[in-house]
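On clarity, I found the account of how folds are encoded harder to follow than it need be. Since the whole study asks how a given chain folds, the encoding of that fold should be made plain. For illustration, here is how one protein appears when written out as sequence plus structure tokens:

:::
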Amino acid sequence: MKKFFRIAGLILVGLLFVSTLVFLWNKSKDKPVEYETVKAEIADLKRSTITTGKIEPRDEILIKPQISGIIAELYKKAGQPVKKDEVIAKVKVIPELSTLNAAESRVRLAEINNIKAQTDFERVKKLFDGKMISADEYEKSEVSCKQAKEELQTAKDNLQIVREGITKNSASFSSTLIRSTIDGLILDVPVKKGNSVIMSNTFNDGTTIATVADMGNLIFRGNIDETEVGHIYEGMPVTINIGALDNKSFDAQLEYIAPKSVENNGANQFEIKAAITVPDSVTIRSGYSANAEIVLQEAHQVFSLPEATIEFSGDSTFVYVLTQPNPQQFERRQVETGISDGIKIEIKHGVGTDDVVRGLQRTDVITKPEK
């Protein structure tokens, strides 16, 4: 009996050993690789580029004084609308002593000449009334008197201009009143009451009193890479997205492509401008950051596959078409591709509607239950 149990135990141990070896051998064998499969489908594809930039008014004008002085009054502030020729500020003139002294001296000399001319004219008039001189001499004296009077008035006006920057006769054209040159919105008033300002000349640009822009005529200004500039043209549609307005989109039209590139972080880029169509119900501020989406290529209702299914080899492209489902077997086939949107790619030739193409490799994913 003991011998029976001993033999049975040895047989059991042997079976366990063999089954363990079989299990380990089966586990060590490579499992056949399985792939996901996809079919070509009809889709609309487009290849686009996105460039960053800013929203700017087309016409942004710097209002500068035509005379140097001190800001006496400011009638407008940033954010207010303004009409053409409306007064924005008033400048008080601070005359130079040398210029003021010359103007005062000119007035004194003009007064002396005027008094002398009037005296001479009165003397000539008496002689003419007594028929002692000719009419020609009388007329010459009268003209000289009028010229002296006019010179005096001119000298006085010049003195007033030097002192105040204005004359009574030209009050409506005063250079001390700083006016807007366009209808628009005041974007900035960088000066304050009491600040000194200077007029523009050959040595400096002058002081900016205000910045005025027409906010009803806006453009997008950005840069596009040289690798994509060859696919765009003036007049093509552009979609503008403004993040500050919850990514609202606006239609635009490309109207300018720079003929010369600029280097930006080591890359050659070309400046572009696009005119934006903005509804009256939307308020856009100057300087908003924005993205412009430009469609470079489009294809409608074409065969397409996920780009991950394509094998690129030099200038050729291939796919693997399923020939046997279980176990999976595939045939490598050359195809002709078209445009890609980064996810799907157009298939021009090589794959039909009934063909099944190899996709990504299947993997077993073990997920832990949520606690």
Q: What stands out?
A: The CA atoms of residues 23 and 268 lie 63 Å apart. DSSP finds three helices and 21 strands in the chain. The chain has four domains: 35-44+300-361, 49-57+214-298, 63-93+172-213, 97-164. The mean pLDDT is 84.
